[in-house]
Amino acid sequence: MRSHFTIKNVRRALNNPRLIRREVHRLCSLPFNHGYGYYVDRKNAESIDMMEEDWDNLLILDACRSDYFEDQHGFSGNSTRVVSPGKMSWEFMQQTFLDRQFHDTIYITSNPFATRLPDDTFFKTEYLIQEWDDEIGTIRPEDVAAAAMEAHQDYPKKRLIIHFMQPHRPYLGPIAEELRERVDLKGYRNQGEGLQIWGAVKEGEVAIQEVRGAYSESLDIVLDVVKGLLKQIDGKSVITADHGEMLGERVFPFTSRVWGHSEGFSTPTLRRVPWLEVPAESRRDIKESDSIKASEDLNKETVNERLTALGYAE
To answer: What pLDDT shows up at residue 280?
Structure first.
């Protein structure tokens, strides 16, 4: 986990004393939050092995909360909740994919952490290098869906993992557009010395409800893309998430607000993710075969730049 105590952040704190008070509150809250996280991890030790479940298409919504998903998904059938093996993306990938081989599966991903997986983990890994949009600092869900359609057409006897970046920040939608016009948010256009959205909340530039509204709109946008995609690919589909997201809730009433999923401790909101099985009229005849090396690689510097845009590094 990166350090909060950079020269840039110290300067911000000196110019805005409320940040000093918030940081003191955060540091005092850490023992309580980490203690609770240890309890949550022990209680949820038996997590789901998604690769052992029955599906032809596994659609992963990055940082998707179960409660928001249940309110917004619009699919027939009820969404249940399962325990994710991780509270952040790389932890999820390590526990789910690392040191295993799935040569009956194509992994289509917009998450930069996927570049850390060995080349032969899947039959083919498609990291969407060319689709990265510098204007928003992420990959749009439409581009992920287009890549999934192409993979399905080229390899109709493979399972598909389709890993969307939304509703993970940077957010999409009208509220997010308004925020980036009002506040210089890093992650959108990456201009100047902009703030990550959590920092903008802490400095009083953005309200908590605005963040939650932007998150909800991003989820609606990716769900609309998912609905369109599932009309075009056959097989049994499951919609889930790699982990959840904290949106300013407190672990205890007296502790500091928690944002995102990179604080290093667990909460039920982070570990319990949606699981919705979409009925299928037909199933695919899945075949295993030798893996294919990814056609393009990302260098370390580019990966770090993209993780920075997503809020994982300064």
So the answer is: 86
Query: Is the pLDDT reported for residue 84 higher than 90?
Result: yes
List Cβ neighbours of 220 (8 Å cut-off, separation of 6 or more).
72, 173
- 314 in a structural domain: no
Q: Is 200 helix (H, G, I), strand (E, B) or coil?
A: helix
The whole-chain average pLDDT of the chain stands at: 87
Q: Record the pTM.
A: 0.89
User: How many alpha carbons lie under 13 Å from residue 69 in its C-beta half-sphere?
Assistant: 29
Judged against a pLDDT cut of 90, whether residue 172 lies above it is answered with yes
What does the block give as tokens for 114?
A: 């996927």
How far is the C-alpha of 65 from the C-alpha of 273, rounded, in Å? 6
d(CA 84, CA 273): 6
CA-wise closest residue to 58 among 10, 28, 92: 92
- Assess if residue 1 is contained within a domain: no
Tally of domains in the chain = 1
Helix (H, G, I), strand (E, B) or coil at 135: coil
Mean pLDDT of 65-92: 95
* Parent domain of 300: 7-309
Q: Give a yes or no: residue 232 inside a domain.
A: yes
Give a yes or no: residue 183 inside a domain: yes
Residue 192 to residue 299: CA distance in whole angstroms: 24
Whether the Cβ atoms of residue 229 and residue 145 lie closer than 8 Å to each other: yes
Indicate the SS3 state at residue 63. coil
CATH number at residue 92: 3.40.720
Q: Tokens 């000196």 belong to which residue?
A: 14
Enumerate the β-bridge partners of residue 9: none
Cis bond before residue 174 (omega within 30° of 0):
no
Return the sign of the alpha-carbon dihedral for residues 13, 17, 245, 42: positive
* Six token digits for residue 311: 């809020």
Least confident of 12-21, 139-148, 211-220: 12-21
